[in-house]
């Protein structure tokens, strides 16, 4: 994830300033959906690394669009908007292992957690 994120962060930020935030948010969500579906259907470590790289790119694309958008939406308190994003990211990072553990405990397929995340991304894309 880290290499994918670092490889496009500067590039994505500059292009987001030039072409707008929405295309990069959409691109980030599409990359994440490809990651969520792709990682579940691969049995090759190299392809899994490619999907991990893609997830890092998705993270950069979303950062390039969402951070500036929220700061522009709340010009009097951009720090609060930044904290809000970090809070949602942290909550997702906290909940995902719990959800996977609950699915495994219930003897269900762990991949449902990725499918649900992809579904949420898709619904977000519809309303963007």
From TrEMBL:
Transmembrane segments: 24-40, 46-62, 83-103, 109-127
Keywords, in A-Z order: Membrane, Transmembrane, Transmembrane helix, Transport
Keyword Membrane attached: yes
GO cellular component, one term: endomembrane system
Recorded topology in the membrane: Multi-pass membrane protein
Domain Major facilitator superfamily (MFS) profile, residue spans: 1-128
Primary localization class, coarse: membrane
Subcellular location field: Endomembrane system
Pfam families tied to this protein: MFS_1
GO MF terms held by the record: transmembrane transporter activity
Family: Belongs to the major facilitator superfamily.
Name the record gives this protein: Inner membrane transport protein YdiM
